[in-house]
Amino acid sequence: MREPIVYLGGGFTPASQAKVNIYDFGIVLGATVTDQLRTFRHEPFRLEEHVERFFESAKYARLTVPIGPGETMARTRELIRHNAGLIPAGADLGVVYFLTPGENLGYAGNAADFKPGEPTFCIHSFPLPFAAFQRFFTEGAHVVTPSTRHVPPQCLDQKIKHRSRLHWWIAEKEAQLVDQDAVPLMLDLDGNLTECSGSNLLLVKKGVVYSPTAANMLRGASREVVSEICAELGIGFESRDLQVHDAINADEIFLVTTPYCMAPVTRINGLPVRDGEVGGVIFERILAAWSEKAGLDIRGQVLGAEADQEGAA
User: Fold this and answer.
1) Which residues pair with 210 in a beta bridge?
2) Nearest C-alpha neighbor of 122 from the set 37, 46, 38, 12
3) Measuring CA to CA, how many Å separate 121 from each of 28, 144, 253, 255?
4) Angle between helices 69-84 and 47-60 (to 10 degrees)
5) Residue range 125-182, pLDDT digits in tens
6) DSSP, res 258
7) Closest Cα partner for 285 from 240, 214, 237?
8) Do residues 265 and 96 lie in contact, with contact meaning Cβ atoms separated by under 8 Å?
9) What is the rounded distance in angstroms from the CA atom of residue 162 to the CA atom of residue 158?
10) What is the tens place of the pLDDT at every residue in 94-135?
C-alpha cells in the first residue's frame, strides 16, 4: 500500500518511518521556525511567497536551511505530486516546513554547550480537514480575548513564523472556558488587537477593511491575498492600531488563514457582530474573488459541495 512521503534528513522517506530525535532543539527549547501553504486542486498556492518567508524566518533565527529556495520548491512539488495522489480529487493538502538547529548532543536543557551540527529540516503534508472548518461557514466563528497577552515585538519580532506557542496554548484554554469552540484573539500589552490562533483578523467599518498593525502580528500570506483583492475591487485596506471597542462595533469581522482562506466572525466576547449574520457584503465579495483566483469554490470545498461535484463528474 502506498503511503505519504516526508522530506527529512536530505531525502524522502515514508511518513510512517519519519522520526525526530527526542533531544532535538525543536523539542528541548522549542527552537523551530515553520511555514505552511496549501494546494488548490492539488497545485501549490503562493509557493514562492511561503518559501521566501520561511527562509527569512530561518535567517532571523540564525538557522541555515540545508537546501536553497529553488530546491525547496522543487522538493515541495515532488512531495505534493506523490501525496496528492493518495487523496480524493476534491480534497487538498496542507504542506508544512519546519527547521530546527538539530540534535543537542550535550543535553542540558539549554544551548550553552551547543556545537553547530546538522539542522533538522522537514517538509511534510496532511489532507486539509475541511470538516473541522465547516461550522465557521455555517455558524461563524466566536472570537474571545483571553487574559494572556501577545509576546511583544521587543522580545520576538512577530514577522517570524515559529512554534514557540505555549502562550497560544494557554490562550486557547482560557478562551474555551467561555466557549468550547472559541477562537482566541490576543491583545498586546497596550490593549490593541493582534492576531488569532492560526489566523489574522480583519474587520470592516463603513466599507473599509482594517487590519491590526504588522508590528503586532505575523504578516500572513492570506492577509496579503486579501489586501491584493481589495486593491483589485476598489475596497479600502488600512493597517492601524485597533482595540476591542473597534471590533465590537465593526460592520463585519473575518478570519484569514491558509487552510480555509477566510471565514466570518459572528460573535466577539459573546456579543454579536452587527446582527450576527454569517458573512457580510465585503466578506462575500472578497471570498468570491479569492475563489476565482483559486479556480474553485472555497466555501463549497469546505462544506463538501466541491467534493460532491468531483464525485459526480
Assistant:
1) 203, 238
2) 12
3) 16, 35, 36, 30
4) 130
5) 999 999 999 999 999 999 999 999 999 888 888 888 888 889 999 999 999 999 999 9
6) T
7) 237
8) no
9) 9
10) 999 999 999 987 766 565 566 657 899 999 999 999 999 999
Single-letter amino acid code for the residue at 289? A
CA 4 to chain centroid, in Å, comes to: 22
Q: What is the pTM of this model?
A: 0.91
What is the identity of the amino acid at 304? G
Q: How many H-runs (helices) and E-runs (strands) does the chain carry?
A: 10, 15
Alpha helices by DSSP H, listed for the chain, are 25-28, 47-60, 69-84, 134-138, 166-178, 221-233, 244-248, 281-294, 298-303, 305-312
Q: What is the 3-state secondary structure (H, E, C) of 179-244?
A: CCCCEEEEECCCCEEEEECCEEEEEEECCEEEECCHHHCCCCHHHHHHHHHHHHHCCCEEECCCEH
Asked whether 248 and 145 are in contact (CB, 8 A), the reply is no
Sheet strands (E) in 64-132:
93-100, 120-127
Distance CA 261, CA 259 (A): 6
Phi, psi torsion values for 262, nearest 5 degrees: -155, 150
Q: Is the dihedral of CA 53, 59, 63, 65 positive or negative?
A: positive
Q: What cell does 185 get?
A: 484573539
- Please tell me the total number of residues recorded for the chain in this structure: 313
> Exposed, middle or buried, 68 (CB in 10 Å: 0-12/13-18/19+)?
exposed
- Cell 455555517, located at residue: 138
